[in-house]
Amino acid sequence: MGEVYESGCMSKKIKIWESDSGALQSSSETKDFTQGILEWMPSGAKIAAVYKRKSDDVSPSIAFFERNGLERSSFKIGESAGDAMVSCKTLKWNSASDLLAGVVSCETYDAIRVWFFSNNHWYLKQEIRYPREDGVTFMWDPTKPLQLICWTLSGQVTVRNFMWLTAVMEDSTAFVIDNNKILVTPLSLSLVPPPMYLFSLSFSSAVRGMAYYSRNSKNCLAVFLSDGSLSFVEFPAPNTWEDLEGKVFNVEISDCKTALGSFVHLLWLDVHSLLCVSAYGSSHNKCLSSGAYETDLHGSYLQEVEVVCYEDHVPDQVTCSGFKASVTFQTLLESPVMALAWNPSKRDSAFLEFEGGKVLGYASRSGIMETRTSDDSVCFSSTCPWVRVAQVDAGGVHKPLICGLDDMGKLYINGKSLCNNCSSFSLYSELANEVVTHLIILTKQDFLFIVDTKDVLQGDLALGNVYFVIDGRRRDEENMSYVNIWERGAKVVGVLNGDEAAVVLQTMRGNLECVYPRKLVLSSITNVLAQQRFKDAFNLVRRHRIDFNVIVDLYGWQAFLQSAVEFVEQVNNLSHVTEFVCAMKNEDVTETLYKNFSFSKKGDKVFQVKDGCSNKVSSVLQAIRKALEERIPESPSRELCILTTLARSDPPAIEESLLRIKSVREMELQNSSDDIRKKSCPSAEEALKHLLWLLDSEAVFEAALGLYDLNLAAIVALNSQRDPKEFLPYLQELEKMPESLMHFNIDIKLKRFDSALRSIVSAGDGYFSDCMNLIKKNPQLFPLGLQLITDPEKKQAVLEAWADHLIDEKRFEDAATTYLCCCKLEKASKAYRECGDWSGVLRVGALMKLSKDEILKLAYELCEEVNALGKPAEAAKIALEYCKDISGGISLLINAREWEEALRVAFLHTADGIISVKSSALECASGLLSEFRESIEKVGKYLTRYLAVRQRRLLLAAKLKSEERSVVDLDEDTASEASSNLSGMSAYTLGTRRGSAASVSSSTATSRARDLRRQRKSGKIRAGSAGEEMALVDHLKGMRMTDGGKRELKSLLICLVTLGETESAQKLQQTAENFQVSQIAAVELANDTMSSESVDEEVYSFERYAQKTRSTARDSDTFSWMLKVFVSP
Q1: Does the record carry Electron transport as a key word (predicted)?
Q2: Residues 990-1032: pLDDT tens digits?
């Protein structure tokens, strides 16, 4: 669609026609275009053409035109010194439209040049020279954007696979290749976006490759040029590079007397040794400067080059000359080497990756390649063009971690796949010893992951694609393991190690972005705190807007108390210390705000000291305040900072702050000659305004009142911008009062009742009524009032008022004791009577010196009241001891089921009582027999129902499992479908019958109350409900005999035996034993079947469990109520 139109002998135009209609769409300006060289970008965005500018008769330019015919950009083809006479023969775009290659003809050779566009600048990235007679031609692979196929007239075909390597080195220095220049930018000093740079290095020909060495205080650069020569540069210390801004250094080629070949890979082993992979035998080797030396080598060779500098390096200067290179070792390679990587764990060694992913080790000066003996299985599953070796700490031992990334985005760690969708990665070290602590992984989804190397070593991360793929659901969750990169298609080009904790990204358009992942920043803060560099930690926290509590919580706040002096001295900025103090709060932010970041890998806290104090804020601020007072010279800023520590304490120390302000104010009022002291403190007004800014003005005003300083309170009120009409009348009224009354009124306002009571007591006897009113309104003051008031009569009044208060709170027993202390016997008697303490009533009656008739009348009344309260045993005691009513006492003992005591009293006093006891005992035994039998029948029905429900539930569960359904999906109303006759089962009704042996064995009011509570607790059982199974088990457990029931039953058995009713006693014991055995056996059987997935009728037989219970549990405390004489064999 592009066409060159000749309008004259020298001028041409580009015309563009529509492909479907053939209509002319646009045309360009008239230019001196080179005939036939026109290339349309595959994406259709630009058209590349070659023309000569009118102002330049020598070097042509490549221009780029849009579809509308307008020129977009251009650059000269011949920009280096050796491009005096050049011409362009052809241009071709790669399939991705990001690389432009062309054959450029120079005076003595032809060259294939590859240009790249980034950030509105065209870079010459590669120049491959061929002899002119070879007539080199090329084409881009239509499917592989980075594969260039070259061939010559002699029939030699070369396939070149390019790969993008980051220009940012390990020390964060960027070396960007652009034709015969290298643009140098230390990113640790400034994040300068390309094509801008700090300074540049200029070479004699185009740069094809380079290697950078930055270890042991040495910074060297080795550069391989397109003419086959080597150049070396030695840099000064990085902290002096700012002085090199804008300079251009011309670098000389090194002296070399041997053939070097065409370098494919280049790597520093140490400061005097290079490891490289060189190709020999290609036709383009004839154009290399080293090709002048005759050599019979053909193929690829691994060779070691020794580098020597004959010039002394001048500090703070760039050394660009005086280097000599010589090949000291060569070995033929049978397989292509895909990557070289320096081994930081072993001196002068490296790793070589061959095609297919095989990794071998190389040792300098040994002249051999060796398989890794520590791990022979290290082999990537596919060829990885990008290989880096990380030195990690594995339990105190430095270990190499080989990282490889292939073309498909698979990231391998020591041969194992870690991530399947990685676009780029880098290594980060928080230390200065080259130990890598984190892997920086950027996925194709544009998520940046920060992976701890310890997690990789310990296998905590799930290897593969699961961990690094973030779907929509996981993206909504709070997940701190990754950062969402806003620029699509960005790449990780480097990191800023150490305290900077930054990741440098390069976007698709070429500019640089720097991100600070929170995980790296927190890890860096932890590392800085471990070195006790508090100022650096503070600056990191402040710069990245992290909660200041991280410093205290990561360090361990108990340990921070001991290092507070060092913290204050290192920060050495009172404004910063004040900012730190204001941020303190009583929580561990590593477990709340930053809980999703892993700190456990560091050992939980940097330092940890156990301390009994639990208030973090108050303790830390107290330590800061003490350090300020001891180590910082007096100044207004220091005083304000101290006030801040007091105001931010928990709770705020407002009164102490006001006392410091009060002392400054008194010093100002004294007009003392101590000018130095005045200059070291802020004015009282300034300090007060600072305090009011930190705290609630109302709280400060009340604290000033609490100091009983009315002038200070007035100053606080005025500075808090309160209306004088609101506070002046109140303060004037207080000023007119006596001191004690003023204190009393202030304490009442501030609700400091203890202090108010002391103040009103000290005011004198004339205010005793006010004192009593205060105590009555605040009952907690009664003990203090008794301590402060010494007058006996007034103390008696306080005691009586206290007892009246206890009566109102229904604490009758305490009230009765208090009434006795103040000799109010009638009130004491009433209090004892209210709490049902008949013994106390009779004791107080004796103190009141009542007559015998009055005592007898009182005893009869108490006997009726106690019996009505459900205490017949105690009522019987009153009847026997005070009323002398033998028959009535025996009747009450029978009602209380105190059979043995009733029989003893009957034997002691009257024969009629014995007959009454016997008839009652026989009647009770008969009733218990029938109820025990009924309970045995209920146990059987409940157990049968439970087994049926359990069996049906297990069958349903098995059916659902076979259908691969969940039991949870089943409706609760259909969970149990078993049916049975429910008649006679009181648990399924309102529960009008008693369901346990305790209820049948005790008919007293206490037993009935227990029965009602148990019935309310157990509730009804709804047939077919989801909870029916557990309800049946709980009901069976609730039918057990209580301790009170057992005691009453044993007492009844002894009574029957004493009265000669042995047969009745034996029958009652056997029936009760049968019930208890049935209940215990049923509960054990139900518990066993609950944990079983099947109910076998032979294994879970009620008869087996009953027999086992009868044989094993009979001698236990459970059956201790039984009389041994009636125990069956």
Answers
A1: no
A2: 333 333 333 333 334 444 455 545 544 445 666 767 677 788 8
